[in-house]
Specification:
Chains A, B: Its main location: cytoplasm. Two copies of one chain form a homodimer. Helices cover 38% and strands 25% of the residues of chain A. Chain A has 27 helices and 28 strands.
Chain lengths: 681, 681
């Protein structure tokens, strides 16, 4: 991981981001502590997020609905901060044109885009209970369990990761059973290219390997397609079919002409949109990782198909990323390699510079908000997995307790989207570019004497014109020669012959000048699933102190932490109020979001509660604060405490939150707190 | 309008808002100029917004869908800035708990809330064409047209405002016809209380006044209810009916227990949410004012039903607002009165302090982002208009080309929402409050000897216990006296008699102490339609210079303006690039959003284009800038130009955007630009 050059190339990142040295410190710490609490305790993690209301099942008091979640105050704030960073990193930095288009979409749009016909998953039905399962998930779960059972039988490992309670109960426990070596190899090959199978092929796998519903052990039927779009109807008559968009992209494409005009007719440019999308998942079971309603952020970058270079590529070309390319997967392996994006583009592994540029920008964004770069890879789509029109496609996959999860897609979709909408609506969706050097061509050109033509040939005139205009250069030259001799004969498809003379037509060499080039731009589409990013970020940030394994700490970078500073008066006594109000007001003025916790419990407990919420800094007001106008500053990850005057501490914490200094630098400014131990950890 | 005290009461507003004196200046100017261009030219205004892509009909290249709009770059940015201000003004200032809940909602929730049964509008069908119209809109349009025709006949006024092209063509032109004075009075009375009619009453009005479809002149049928929720189904089996939420409120109520817990069990507190909602409007025709998909911001403030005072009410009580109360409307008038909110609460016109507090906070928010206070009023709901459970309800109505439009609602919904969900789900949604002083009561209490009771009465024991426990205090005292005498007789409902003795039961006086009070909080709900606010704000900001009537100017306050600063190099020549980049970077660092316009057109044209986009400041880089390091600063509303060093101008423009200084103050710092007139206006 070459992180140095990133910061030099993108100096704008630095002032707003958590200083890299500090963030590395935190994630190193998290991984160390995760090791002490190994394996990662997903149950405790989930319970913490639920208890602190990061998110919770929607409609919980009505029994909930699978795949629908509500974000509570810390989850909403974390999401808003991630969006804010996204907006700065992409929209503002690259001058993108932001859009906000509607979710409800008339059927015709998705008929054109191909979603009505093809935006579907393969589902299988349990032949006895009628339960519905996603076919590829069934194959994955059963084969992974069998492999885990095999590893156990060979004395190599414990049970596999389980995704939820139901599986845990019924299917998660692998049966210890040794498999033949060839079977192991076959299963591994299937899993490595699982996304590459068609529906009928998945059905074939179920039959061949006797894959049954893990919940019931019943056989399953043939895979059937299930369209993932939610359907509704628009207007009072019920005649206008509509769908909830499964992505925001179509809203960009349909506004292409307006966007191009807004950009003064020039490409390349990009549109960007953050908004809600909907997918009626067959059987969502993986918490925030597979939901029916989610917030996306999508970019459509429109580029000249003949020139996919990127002016800023040189700034990123040395940055190394972890790649899992198509060839490796199709060979049945999951082995990644680390490579600079420059090398990957030079070798043709990544299709072009613009795609490579965005892959790096995605990488930087994710690492900047706190994703552990060691648990981030870019996986290329395999042949069957990729849409037929796409040139290349890479997913940013983030590792978490359930394995590797696609969190961002980055595809070169060629001219597909604009072409299909243009063909359907008859509206040109093209760029017209004035050529710097007009293209000058000379060619033989028929010149008609319309009057004589009409008089001589009457209703056959059109046929004759068409015949001659369709001729290629050599044939026209031949015709020219014959006409110079006096006359020639052309023959229609149905064998009719027409004698032509120079009175009707002559062939002349003419010069043509083309000064406008017209083309349909290609689209590079980075598409972010914000809920998945939020969830994996929480996992990467979660650990427990050895001194208090029961309680978690969320080491979120300040730039995304829901609350930046917790103000903790020793007690709710009135004498602390003036200082609490002064400090709150000063932090608000400095643009630092703080909260006061004056609840009736020990300072240590209040800090522990806020460690779970990811609050990076705490200011304690005690009895000494009143006469001395001093406060202590506590850092979440180290639990270090420093002391200083109110204004000094506020200035320091503001810089810490803005990322212009790190904790080490803060410690050089403020002495360690060695007074009476008012804060019991 | 007493604006002075506002700023003293809410000092936080000042630093981030446009200085009041400047904003007043702008809106005064706008109204002056609107007068010169009187009447307001809606067609030019709409054309400008469309051309600059503030918003446009969604799916335009597919022919569009009524009531669905996409926001382009300036519209998205304006919306994002309004949301940002809303978040600061409400969520941060009042420490509200933000939520982000799902749009897709299972049917059961809206069955409980009453939306499935009652969230409907009355529609009528054209008896010949089958066209569907909203019944109240039909009444309004036809009566307003007749009144306009009458005014014309009396020589009093021109044609009425028209809402769209279709109406303009067919129905917008009022027939000049004088009406009887009583008829005029009757029509005016109907219009003043239009929102108070039931469906059958609207039908009656159509028959009585012979109201026909203005597009066809055909009669219409009886009003029928049409539910405004979009319906869908969740999951692959199609068995789970769902609706798209028509408001965000239910997501708050269902999470009440989690929110209360997050707030350490204390009330009052508020939850807040910004998100998309959907209403399948019958016949949306009024642009952004009536749409099928829209962004809302809603607050649910939970308060003790016995104490609706507000701790900060004293800060706002002297602020005067324009009120149109219930009694006035029910008397058939639309006359408003200006009153301080303190007086309105004291007189019982506004039901309580908390409701009054939010009404003022709404007022301040709207004026702060640029709504003209002279075109803002608070209208109280009439008896039939208000939900049966609500205590009081006020709409913030903003005046615009179509009349007065509800943009914010503010209702005291009592305990309705929490009560119905609690009753349906069996989950208590209550606050448990430790009483400071426990409530001590003494009462006569039966004490049973269970052993003897069972032995003597066997299966009748339960009946006897029930009979005695149900007695009131005097009866228990009588029983006590009889038992003291040796025995008594109790009689069951079916006439059976039981003789009781002190061996079975005695009556004793006991002391009870209640230390917990349990109650369902009441809900005060301010609910904002952001699209309507955005649209009316654009109308209030739009005017034209006398020197260039064809082009508009949008005098948006910098705090919400899509772009704050336009950087204008004299030309796209490379020599200007270093300065352009330096200034862009410095503004970005200062947190000021700028754009560069180096397109190949005159500076005057570029400024005019950005006046239409509402960009408040422009920095011009000319040939003098290179040797002197000076730039000129141009203010949008006055077109004043000042000059200064790059750093001076950047510091000044940053303060202007932050609202810490106004243009007058800026002019004291920077001298007027009197050099060569590089900028042709």
């Amino acid at each position: 991981m070459r992180l140095g050059p990133i910061l030099r190339s993108f100096p704008h990142i630095r002032p707003r981001s958590y200083p890299l040295v500090h963030r590395r410190h935190s994630s190193d710490m998290a991984s160390v502590v995760n090791k002490t609490a190994h394996p990662f305790d997903k149950a405790r993690f989930d319970a913490t997020l639920n208890r602190r209301f990061f998110y919770a099942p929607a409609f919980e008091i009505y029994g909930g609905v699978a795949g629908l979640y509500d974000y509570g105050p810390p989850g909403s704030a974390l999401q808003a901060n991630i969006i804010d960073q996204w907006r700065k990193h992409f929209i503002i930095e690259e001058g993108m044109l932001e859009l906000d288009t509607t979710i409800m979409t008339p059927s015709a749009v998705f008929e054109t885009s191909g979603h009505v016909a093809r935006f579907a998953d393969w589902m299988v039905k349990d032949t006895k209970t009628g339960d519905v399962l996603r076919a590829d998930h069934l194959v994955k779960n059963v084969l992974e369990n069998r492999l885990a059972g095999d590893r156990e039988a060979r004395g190599l490992a414990a049970a596999p990761p389980v995704e939820d309670k139901k599986r845990k109960k019924k299917a998660g426990k692998a049966t210890t059973l040794k498999l033949d070596d060839e079977v192991v190899k076959e299963y591994e090959t299937i899993l490595a290219q699982l996304d590459n199978y068609t529906g009928p092929e998945l059905g074939e796998l179920c039959r061949k390997h006797k894959l049954t519903n893990p919940d019931t052990d019943n056989e399953v039927g043939e895979p059937q397609q299930f369209n993932l779009m939610f359907q509704s109807s628009i207007g009072p008559t019920g005649q206008h079919k509509g769908y909830l968009r499964p992505e925001t992209a179509q809203g960009h494409f349909l506004n292409f002409n307006r966007l191009l005009d807004y950009n003064n007719g020039r490409v390349p440019f990009a549109s960007a949109q953050i908004g809600r999308s909907f997918r009626n998942e067959i059987s969502p079971r993986a918490g925030l990782l597979r939901v029916r309603e989610f917030t996306m952020a999508e970019i459509e970058h429109y580029v000249d198909p003949d020139d996919k270079s990127h002016p800023r590529f040189k700034e990123v070309r040395d940055i190394a990323i972890v790649l899992l390319d198509r060839d490796v997967q199709e060979a049945g392996s999951s082995e990644t390699r680390v490579m600079s994006v420059g090398e990957a583009v030079d070798k043709g592994i990544i299709a072009n510079e613009t795609l490579g540029y965005f892959i790096v920008r995605i990488y930087l964004f994710l690492v900047n908000i706190g994703i552990n770069p060691k648990r981030l890879r870019f996986r290329q789509h395999m042949a069957n997995e990729m849409a037929h029109y796409a040139t290349d496609c890479w997913d940013a996959e983030i590792h978490n307790a359930t394995g590797w999860t696609e969190c961002v897609g980055c595809a070169d979709r060629a001219a597909y989207d604009l072409s299909v909408h243009s063909a359907k609506t008859g509206q040109p969706l093209v760029v017209r570019q004035a050529l710097k050097e007009p293209i000058v061509t000379e060619k033989e050109t028929p010149e008609w004497n319309k009057k004589n033509l009409g008089k001589l040939f009457k209703k056959d005139a059109a046929v004759i014109t068409q015949l001659v205009e369709a001729l290629d250069e050599p044939s026209l030259l031949k015709l020219k020669g014959e006409l110079a001799q006096g006359s020639t004969v052309v023959k229609s498809e149905d064998g009719k012959e027409f004698a032509l003379t120079p009175e009707v037509v002559t062939i002349e060499r003419k010069v043509f000048k083309q000064s406008i080039r017209e083309f349909t731009p290609n689209v590079i589409e980075p598409s972010f699933g914000l809920g998945r990013i939020l969830y994996t970020l929480l996992e990467h940030s979660f650990w427990s102190r050895e001194s208090d394994v029961e309680r978690g700490v969320l080491s979120l970078p300040p730039v995304v932490a829901p609350t930046k500073v917790l103000i903790v008066p020793l007690s709710a006594r009135e004498e602390f109020n003036p200082l609490v109000q002064e400090i709150s007001a000063k932090l608000r003025k400095a643009g630092v979001f703080s909260r006061v916790d004056d609840s009736n419990t020990s300072i240590g407990k209040r800090y522990a509660r806020n460690d779970e919420l990811g609050t990076p800094f705490g200011l304690t007001i005690d009895f000494a604060s009143i006469p001395n106008r001093t406060v202590t500053l506590r850092e979440r990850d180290t639990t270090d405490q420093r002391i200083g005057s109110i204004d000094e501490v506020i200035a320091t914490v503001t810089e810490l939150v803005d990322g212009t200094i790190d904790w080490e630098e803060a410690c050089q400014r403020l002495p360690a707190y060695d007074g009476v131990q008012a804060v019991a950890e």
